[in-house]
Amino acid sequence: MVGYTVPRRLHGVEAEAAFVVLSAAKKVEATGRRVAHLEIGDASYDTPEHIKEAAIRALKEGKTHYTPTVGIPELRQAIAESVKRDYGVEVDWEKNVVVANGCKQAILASMLSILEEEDEVLYPNPGYPEYEAAARLAGAKPIPYKLTIEDEFRIDADRIAELITPRTKLVVINTPHNPCGSIMREEDVKALADLSDDHGFYILSDEIYRPFLYDGEEHYSPLSVKRSLDRLIIADGFSKRYAMTGWRIGYALIPEELTTTVFKLLNVMTSCPSSISQWAALAALTGPQNPVHEMRKGYEQRRNLAAEMLSEVEGIRFVKAKGAFYMMIDVSKLISKLRMSAEEFVMMLIEKYGVAFLHGTALGSYGEGYIRMSFSASEDHITDGLKKLKQAASDILSS
Ligand SMILES: Cc1ncc(COP(=O)(O)O)c(C=O)c1O
Questions:
Q1: How close is the Cα of 66 to the center of ligand 1, in Å?
Q2: Per residue in 244-274, pLDDT tens?
Q3: Which residues sit with their C-beta closer than 6 Å to ligand 1?
Q4: Residue 237 alpha carbon, nearest atom of ligand 1
Q5: 317-318: strand order across its sheet
Q6: How far is the CA of 194 from the centre of ligand 1 (A)?
Q7: Fold (topology level) of 8-46+290-398
Q8: What angle do the packed helices 49-60 and 275-286 form, to 10 degrees?
Q9: How far apart are the CA of 166 and the centre of ligand 1, in A?
Q10: Where are the domains of the chain?
Q11: What is the dihedral of CA 135, 137, 138, 142, to 10 degrees?
Q12: Mean per-residue pLDDT for 265-286?
C-alpha cells in the first residue's frame, strides 16, 4: 500500500492552537478542578434576544433552504447601507458585498481569489493565524512583518514599506488587532494606502473588532481614506460585534473585479451560508444597536480590571489594549528562568495553577516569550485567572 503524504501545498498550514489549549484545559476540568479561561476569543455575552427571535421566525417561516451563494439580497443590501453609515462610502451590494460562513471564510476566499504561486503576502506577526494559513493554501509566500512591544504593537507603514518587493501582491492589516489590542494610526493607514497606489498591491483590512475601541479612540480604515474599494478588501463579520461566533456569518467588501472569482470559490466550498443565520444577521444589523454599545462598555471595564491586576504581577510587561479584547503579556523573564517555551509555560499554568492563556507562538513566530489573554472572559474568570498568574510569577521569581 502506498503511504499517505500530506500535499505540499498544505505544509506549514496549522489549525488554530486556541482550540488545542481549550481541550487541555477541559481535561483538567474533567478531574473536578476549576480552570479560569482566558485563552479563547469568544464573547462571554450571549447573542441578543431579538437576533435569536429572528432566527426562530426564519425557521418557522420555512426559510430553511439554500440561499444565493454570496448571501440573501436583504442582508447584502443592509451591509451596504451599514457601510454608508459607518464609513460614508457607497458600495454596490451586488458587486462589492459577499456574505460567507464567518469572516474567516471571507478572508480565505478573498485571498485565494487574488494570489498566485510565489506571490508575496505581508502579514502581521504576532497576528491572527488565518492570514499565514490562507497564503500557504494559495501556494503564495507569507512574509511576516513584526509587531513589537516597544512600538506598543502598532502596525507601522514604514516597517511594511521595507518589505515590499515587485512580488508583493497583498498586504494584510488588522485593526483593532488580535492578539495585541493595538490600533492603527491614521497616518499609517494613509501611508499604506499611498504605498498600495504606488506599487499596485492589494490591501486586505480585517476590521472585525472595529466596534470595540476604548478611551475614546477612533477607527481608521483604508476605506475611509481611499473612499473606494480599488485594490482594497475589507473583512468583517457578526461573530464579535453581536456575540454570534457560533452562527458563522461574516462578509467581505471586495473590488468588482473579484466578484465572479469569490462567488465561484464560495460556491465550491459551501454553496451558501446558513439560511437561518443570515436572517438572524439581518436582524442584528437592522435592529437596535445598544447591545453592541453595552458590550463595548463591558469590555472596557474588563480591560481596566485586567490592566490593573496585570500591573501588580511581578516580572512581566504588557501594553494596555486600545481595542479588540486581547492583550499580549511578555513573560520572557519568567520562562527563561524556567527554561520553558511559551507553549510549555501555558501548559504548566493550566495543569499546576488552573488558568489557561494562549501561547504567543500560536499567533506567529514573533510571539515567542509572550502569552495572550482574552478579556472577553467574564470578570470572575479574569479575577481568578490573573490572581493565579500573580501567584505563579511570585513562585517562579522566588524559587
Ligand atoms: C482578527 C480576526 N479576524 C477574523 C476572525 C474570524 O471571525 P469569524 O468567527 O467571523 O470567522 C477572528 C476570530 O477570532 C479574528 O480574531
A1: 24
A2: 999 999 999 999 999 999 999 999 999 999 9
A3: 41, 102-104, 128, 174, 178, 206, 208, 237, 239, 245, 250
A4: 10
A5: 317-318, 326-330, 370-374, 358-359
A6: 27
A7: Aspartate Aminotransferase, domain 1 (3.90.1150)
A8: 140
A9: 30
A10: 8-46+290-398, 65-286
A11: 20
A12: 98
